[in-house]
Amino acid sequence: MTLILCLFTIAISLLLSSTPVSAHFFPNITSIPPLLNATNGPWDSFRNFSGFHAGDKSDGLSKLKHYLQHFGYITNSTSNYTDDYFDDALKAAIETYQKNFNLNVTGELDPQTVQQIVRSRCGVPDIVNGSTTMNSGKKTSSSNSTHFHTVSHYSFFPGTPRWPNSKRNLTYAFLPENQLSNDVKTVFSRAFNRWSMVTALTFTQTESFNDADIQIAFFVGDHWDGEPFDGLLGTLAHAFSPTNGRLHLDGDESWVVSGDITTSSSTSAVDLESVTVHEIGHILGLGHSSVENAIMYPTISSRTRKVELANDDILGIQELYGANPAYNGSSTTPEAQNEGGTDYGAAQKLGSPLDLKFAVGIGLLLLFL
Ligand SMILES: [Zn+2]
Ligand SMILES: [Zn+2]
To answer: Pfam families of this UniProt entry (predicted)?
Structure first.
């Protein structure tokens, strides 16, 4: 009886504590309020460490270690990543990071390295379970070179998971509680087209979120998959390897749906299609690439549009699924752009979610009815 009462209490508290999912969409660059223009990303404090090297100590260095641990550069066994010492493990992590991002391998927090670290990026780690096929996982042609030259290429998740042969037409759906407008949904459709043009996969939107192969959702903060979002900039989105299908975007970003984002005066404006094309790559089985112009490169600055699949991306996806017979090797741009967009005025705020907490709460509550 006590156990039932306890479960009932948990069910009620989960229902009551369910946080709303909201996302900010801006139909064009002039509709972003000036207030958001001065916002810095969550990693901006790392700029204070510019010039630091092994042996240094500074308050907040543990936060940088956490960052590197999160993206796979420090394993829990190699370093105490909760202290503020610039130890050998941190130096090794920075060297690996520098290789992956085509920087001079100095092991120090030189300005170029810091500049790269603070860029907004995808939340998927560069190194998964200690293995990577970004630069640091490849053999160098000249071992005494301090600058790593990228020859290739794309990468896959460990074990090369992919959608099975029986699944060549994948369905996708949007979390109903996000109440996305047709303009926003069109951005996703364009992003999927970029991949289906080059490979033997097709994508079809379906209304049933739970039955869809690919489930797209905007969440704010912690959303119960162990990968909480971090507010404006920082981590922009993440997605899971096949055949999980979950594609999550940070509802706190200033998502720009159309228009020339490069001319935006807002330092926080993020191009929705650019990030979506990247995350679909993960959904299909691609990991991060060290090739800077590849869609699967891990970072993307705000006010940047990057939607064209690079040769690196195309070779990677075709290795997994084969080529689209209709693909002739030319541009992948389905440029039915909706440049300029319509002026809706202020940001569109979205309604309440049915997030995991809510679902668990409902489930538990049903036990008692
Ligand atoms: Zn990514
Ligand atoms: Zn998530």
So the answer is: Peptidase_M10 (PF00413), PG_binding_1 (PF01471)
Q: How many A from CA of 7 to the centre of ligand 1? A: 38
Domain boundaries, the chain: 1-18+353-369, 20-38+157-351, 44-117
For the domain spanning 20-38+157-351, the CATH number is 3.40.390.10
pLDDT above 50 for 13: no
The one catalytic residue among 279, 292, 308, 339 = 279
Binding site annotation covers 231? yes
User: 209 C-alpha vs ligand 2 centroid, how far in Å?
Assistant: 15
- Determine phi and psi for 35, rounding to 5 degrees: -55, -35
Task: Give the number of whichever ligand sits closest to the CA of residue 224.
Answer: 2
Ligand nearest to the CA of 215: 2
Q: Which ligand is nearest to the CA of 121?
A: 1
**In this model, does residue 159 exceed pLDDT 70?**
yes
Phi-psi region for residue 78, left (φ > 0), alpha (ψ -120 to 50) or beta? alpha
Is 292 among the catalytic positions? Answer: no
In angstroms, what is the span from residue 124 Cα to ligand 1's centroid?
A: 5
Vertex 216 angle, CA 211 and 219, to 5°? 125
- Which of these ranges, 78-87, 95-104, 240-249, 286-295, has the smallest mean pLDDT? 78-87
- The answer to the question of whether 260 is labelled as a binding residue is no
Per-residue pLDDT reduced to its tens digit, 181-197: 999 999 999 999 999 99
**What superfamily would CATH give domain 44-117?**
PGBD-like superfamily/PGBD (1.10.101.10)
- Evaluate whether 248 touches 238 at the Cβ level (below 8 Å): yes
Nearest-angstrom CA–CA distance, 136 and 306: 24
User: What mean pLDDT is predicted for residues 169-177?
Assistant: 97
Centroid of ligand 1 to alpha carbon of 15 (angstroms)? 32
- Strand partners for 170: 203
